[in-house]
């Protein structure tokens, strides 16, 4: 079943702030994210993107502000609790078990979802195999199920990571530079796949990305941070044309358009 981008916010971030000593890493950031929406969080190095992610998933505690998921406050909750509430994450360098097969990796994620990681089911080989294979089918890896993860091309490892991340059916997925280290063809296939999963499941996706062709090709909305503050938040075309964003990226004049291939 396909779900379009909803008009109701799935995630509402208000006044989010975090300082490290004298460094104001995130300062009063506000944004909403709808179910099924792909929101790119971009900005130069040190803009506060990772800090924002870590505040949302509970790895860091906010100094001020609020992060509400479907109305529930996440600030102050432990990362595991936030994960249980439906916030998944993928990493810049994919985190998979290289010595396990592709299917076993997904089965490990299913064990974790079902709180059985430390039970006799710990040997993943036979656990919820049909469900694991269905997830692999969805990410286009059914024919690789029995291969060790370490033998896969990196773009396929990223697909395994995606299958693992959606195994617990998150309503919000945080993706830290999802296409880092992948070839251009793989990059587009991976983002098209992610967008399909987001639309089908009504899953909101917040992703950081340095590749502007990915940002402008796949984001429904773009949020630009600089020095911890919001510079722009809107549809890709309006953000691309925004004079402050132009100035931030390479110091261009507003009349000179930001090109898809520009890197952050
Ligand atoms: N644990 C920390 N201790 C001290 N300062 C930190 C810490 N984490 C981040 N900072 C600082 O906070 C600011 C924002 O950093 P952050 O990593 O969130 O930026 P970013 O946009 O993710 O950058 P990049 O694109 O380089 O990953 C930077 O000035 C950074 O040096």
UniProtKB/TrEMBL annotation:
<dbReference type="GO" id="GO:0005524">
    <property type="term" value="F:ATP binding"/>
</dbReference>
<dbReference type="Pfam" id="PF12399">
    <property type="entry name" value="BCA_ABC_TP_C"/>
</dbReference>
<protein>
    <submittedName>
        <fullName>ABC transporter ATP-binding protein</fullName>
    </submittedName>
</protein>
<keyword id="KW-0813">Transport</keyword>
<keyword id="KW-1003">Cell membrane</keyword>
<keyword id="KW-0472">Membrane</keyword>
<dbReference type="InterPro" id="IPR051120">
    <property type="entry name" value="ABC_AA/LPS_Transport"/>
</dbReference>
<dbReference type="InterPro" id="IPR003439">
    <property type="entry name" value="ABC_transporter-like_ATP-bd"/>
</dbReference>
<keyword id="KW-0067">ATP-binding</keyword>
<feature type="domain" description="ABC transporter">
    <location>
        <begin position="11"/>
        <end position="252"/>
    </location>
</feature>
<dbReference type="InterPro" id="IPR032823">
    <property type="entry name" value="BCA_ABC_TP_C"/>
</dbReference>
<dbReference type="InterPro" id="IPR027417">
    <property type="entry name" value="P-loop_NTPase"/>
</dbReference>
<dbReference type="Pfam" id="PF00005">
    <property type="entry name" value="ABC_tran"/>
</dbReference>
<dbReference type="InterPro" id="IPR003593">
    <property type="entry name" value="AAA+_ATPase"/>
</dbReference>
<keyword id="KW-0547">Nucleotide-binding</keyword>
């Amino acid at each position: 079943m396909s779900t379009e981008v909803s008009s109701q916010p799935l995630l509402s971030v208000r006044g989010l702030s975090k300082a490290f000593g004298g460094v104001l890493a995130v300062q009063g950031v506000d944004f909403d994210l709808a179910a099924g929406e792909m929101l790119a969080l971009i900005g130069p190095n040190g803009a506060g993107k990772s800090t924002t992610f870590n505040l949302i998933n509970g790895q860091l505690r906010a100094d001020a502000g609020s992060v509400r998921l479907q109305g529930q406050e996440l600030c102050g909750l432990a990362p595991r609790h936030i994960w249980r509430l439906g916030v998944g994450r993928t990493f810049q360098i994919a985190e998979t078990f290289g010595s396990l097969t592709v299917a076993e990796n997904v089965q490990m994620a299913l064990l974790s979802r079902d709180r059985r990681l430390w039970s006799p089911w710990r040997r993943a080989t036979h656990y919820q195999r049909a469900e694991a294979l269905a997830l692999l089918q969805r990410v286009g890896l059914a024919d690789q199920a029995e291969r060790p993860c370490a033998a896969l091309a990196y773009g396929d490892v990223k697909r395994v990571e995606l299958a693992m991340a959606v195994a617990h059916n998150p309503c919000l997925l945080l993706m830290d530079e999802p296409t880092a280290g992948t070839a251009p063809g793989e990059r587009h296939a991976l983002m098209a796949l992610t967008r399909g999963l987001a639309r089908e499941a009504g899953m909101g996706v917040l992703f950081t990305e340095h590749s502007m062709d990915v940002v402008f090709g796949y984001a429904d909305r773009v949020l630009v941070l600089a020095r911890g503050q919001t510079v722009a938040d809107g549809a890709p075309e309006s953000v691309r044309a925004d004079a402050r964003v132009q100035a931030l990226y390479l110091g261009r004049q507003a009349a000179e358009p930001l090109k898809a291939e520009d890197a952050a």
